[in-house]
Amino acid sequence: MNYFDFPLEEWTNTFVDDWLLPVWGDFFDVISNVLTVIIDGVTNGLLFIPPEVLTILLIIVAWKYAGKGVALFSLIGCVFLGSVELWPEAMQTLAIVLVATFISVVIGIPVGILSATNAAVDKVVRPILDFMQTLPSFVYLIPAILLFGLGGVPAVIATFVFAAPPAVRMTALGIRQVPNDVIEASKAFGSTSKQLLFKVQLPLAMPTIMAGINQTMMLALSMAVVASMIGAPGLGTTVLTGISRVNVGLGLVGGLGIVVLAIVLDRITQSFGKKA
Amino acid sequence: MNKIEVNNLTKIFGSHPQQGLKRLSNGESKDDILEETGMTVGVNQASFTIQPGEMFVIMGLSGSGKSTLIRLINRLIEPTDGEVLIDGHDITKMDKSELIETRRKKLGMVFQHFGLFSHRTILSNIAYGMEIQGMAKDEREEIAMKTLEDVGLKGYEHSYPNQLSGGMQQRVGLGRALANDTDILLMDEAFSALDPLIRKEMQDELIRIQSRLGKTVLFITHDLDEALKLGDRIAIMKDGQIVQIGTPEEILEKPADDYVSNFVRDVDRSKVLEASHVMKTPEVLLSYKDGPRVAIRKMEEAGASSIFVVDQEKQFKGLLTIDDAVKAHNEDIPIQDLLIKDVDKTSPHTFLNDLIGTAVQAKYPIAVIEDGKLLGIVSRVSILSGLVLGKEKGDEQTS
C-alpha cells in the first residue's frame, strides 16, 4: 500500500526540532511564564482563603443564583472534600479549570462571533474545532510538554484545546439564532454594526453563550486526570496515584472529588445562563 | 417636493443580477428568467412617488415582492438597480454613515412580527432609536415615556415584550418608530399578525396618529379592505411589478386589468364608498322665502312627499312634509314654523357602512351637510344601488 512514501513522522519531528523550538522557543517561554504566574496566583489565592470561608461564599452564590438545593449540595460537597483531606488538591484542580475556562472564553467568544457573522471565517474555524475536539488528547500532550515543560502550563494548554470548542460553537449558534426581524429592526433604526452586536445580538445570545461556557467548564474538569499525567497537581494526581498503587479506595475518593466539583460548578454556571 | 420618489427600482436575487437586469430590460418575464437562470426577480422596475403627509399603501399577495420593496426603501435589502429619493437624496448611493444617519433621522419602521428586543423593557425598546443616537438616558426615557402614553401603554413601561399581547406588542413597535420622530413611517404588514378586532383598533389608531402628526406613511398589506381603509393612494403589486396606482375609488371603479378587477370584485363597498359618492342633488330646493303653494307644486313635480329647505346661501334650514305644506297653505301659517329640524344628517365623508343603520330607520332621506350647507341627500335606494353597482347614479352603469 505504500505508494507515496509519506514520511509525516520525520517531517513533523524535523519541523519541531529544527524550527519550532529554536525559532519560537523564546515566544513559548514568555507564554509559559505568564501562564505560570496566573495559575500560581489563582491556586495560591484559592488555597489562601480558609476552606470554611470559601465554602460559605460558595453557598451564598449557589443560594442566590441556583436555589436552596444546590446550596445544600455545595455544603455537603465542600465538607466531603475537607473530610477526605482533598481540599488542597480540589483547589489546584479548580485553579487549572478556571484558568483554562477563562482563556477559552476570552479566545472562544470573539472567534464565535466572527464565525457567526463571516462565512469565510466559519469555513476555516469549523474544521479546526473538529480537529481540537476529536484528536486524542495524548497526541497534543507531547508537543505541549516539549514547548511548555511539565506542570500546570501544558495542562492548561491541553485543557484549552479540548475544552474551548463549545465556547466557540455555542457563541456562534447563539448569534445565528437571533431572529432576523429583530436584527432588521435594529438596523432599520440606524444601528452601527457594533451597536447591533453589543445591544442586540450578544444580549439575546447570552443564554446560549452561557450554556457554552458551562460545557467548556465541564470538559475542562474532565481533563483533570489527563492534566495530572503531565505534572499538573490536583485531584487527577490522587486518581493517578490510586491507579499506580492499585488502591481502589484512593482512586474512588479522587474520582468522587472531581464529580463533586463538577456538579457544583455545573449547577451554578447553568443558573447564570438562565438568569442572563 | 416628493417625500419619497422611487424610480425603476429593481431587485434580482441570485448569482448574476446584472445579467438578470439585462433580460428584464429586454422584456423577459419573471418566470422565464427564473426558469433559465435560476434567479428570482423580487421587484421589477417599480416607480412611484409619495407626497408629504400621504398614506401610501402597497397591496399585493404573498410573493408579489411588496416586503422586498419596502426593504429596498431603507436598504435593508440592497437594490440591484434604480433609485430611491428620500427628500431628494438617493439612498441607494449613500455611504454607510449617510445611510445610518438617514435611517436614524428620516425612516421609522414597524414590522409584521413586531421585531421587539425581548431582553429589553418596553420603555427601553421604545427608547432604542434615541439610545443608539447617543441621547442621554434621562432625556430619551422622558420622550419614550410620553410616546408610550400616546400609544396607550401607560403602566407597562417596565414589562417585557413577552408579557404583552400581540396587539400591545405592536403598539410597542409603533411607539418605537414614533419616538424617533422621523417624518416617514415604513409599515411592513404591521397589522397582519393581529386578530381582526385589534387590527381595526390599530388601523383607527394609525389614522388618528397620522392626522395628528402628519407622518408620511408607506404601508404594506395583503388585505385589500385594509388598503382601501387606510390608503390615500394604493399601489397594487403582482409578480414584483406595480400594476396600478390610484385612489381607493379609482381602484374600485377603474381596475387597470383583470388581476385588479378580480381582487376588487368581492370588496365590501360599504367600507369604501362615502356618502358624497352616492348622494343626489336634491331635485327640488325651496328657497326660504317661497311660500307653501310653491312647495306643494315642486313636491308634486318631483313625486316626493317631503322637501328640504335652504336659504340663499344653501344653509340647511329643515324639512317640510307635504302634509305640513298643505296645512300651511290652508291655515296660512309661515312654513318656517312647520319645518322639521331634527332630520337625520351626515357628513359627506361618512362611509355607507355607517349609514345603513340610520337609513333603515329614517322616515325621510338623509341630509348630507358640510359647514351647515346642504350638499345632497342620500336615500335608502341610493345606498343600496351604490353598494350593488358602484358609486353615483347606479342606473348609468351597465355592468
From TrEMBL, chain A:
Instruction: Supply the InterPro entries for this chain.
Output: MetI-like (IPR000515), MetI-like_sf (IPR035906)
Xref: Pfam families: BPD_transp_1
List the GO molecular function terms: amine transmembrane transporter activity; carnitine transmembrane transporter activity
Q: Tell me which domain of life the UniProt entry assigns to the organism this sequence originates from.
A: Bacteria
Which stretches are transmembrane?
Answer: 20-39, 46-63, 69-87, 94-117, 137-163, 219-240, 246-265
Which positions fall inside the ABC transmembrane type-1 domain?
90-269
Asked if Oxidoreductase is a keyword of the record, the answer is: no
Family statement:
Belongs to the binding-protein-dependent transport system permease family. CysTW subfamily.
Q: What is this protein called?
A: Glycine betaine/proline transport system permease protein
Which organism does this sequence originate in?
Answer: Alteribacillus iranensis
Automatic annotation (TrEMBL), chain B:
Q: What is its main location?
A: membrane
Matching entries from CDD domains are given as:
ABC_Pro_Gly_Betaine
Domain CBS intervals: 279-335
Carries keyword Iron-sulfur?
A: no
User: Is RNA-binding among the key words of this record?
Assistant: no
Return the similarity comment. Answer: Belongs to the ABC transporter superfamily.
Tell me which species this is from: Alteribacillus iranensis
Q: Name one GO molecular function term.
A: ABC-type quaternary ammonium compound transporting activity
Q: Where is the ABC transporter domain?
A: 28-264
For this protein, the record's PROSITE patterns field holds: ABC_TRANSPORTER_1, ABC_TRANSPORTER_2, CBS
Membrane topology label: Peripheral membrane protein
- A GO CC term assigned to this protein in UniProt: plasma membrane
For the protein in the UniProt heading, the enzyme class is translocase
Q: What is this protein called?
A: Quaternary amine transport ATP-binding protein
**Record field: catalytic activity:** a quaternary ammonium(out) + ATP + H2O = a quaternary ammonium(in) + ADP + phosphate + H(+)
Q: How does it assemble?
A: The complex is probably composed of two ATP-binding proteins, two transmembrane proteins and a solute-binding protein.
Compartments reported by the entry: Cell inner membrane
Question: What does the entry give for GO biological process?
Answer: amino acid transport; glycine betaine transport; response to osmotic stress
Record keywords? Amino-acid transport, ATP-binding, CBS domain, Cell inner membrane, Cell membrane, Membrane, Nucleotide-binding, Transport
The EC number of this protein is 7.6.2.9
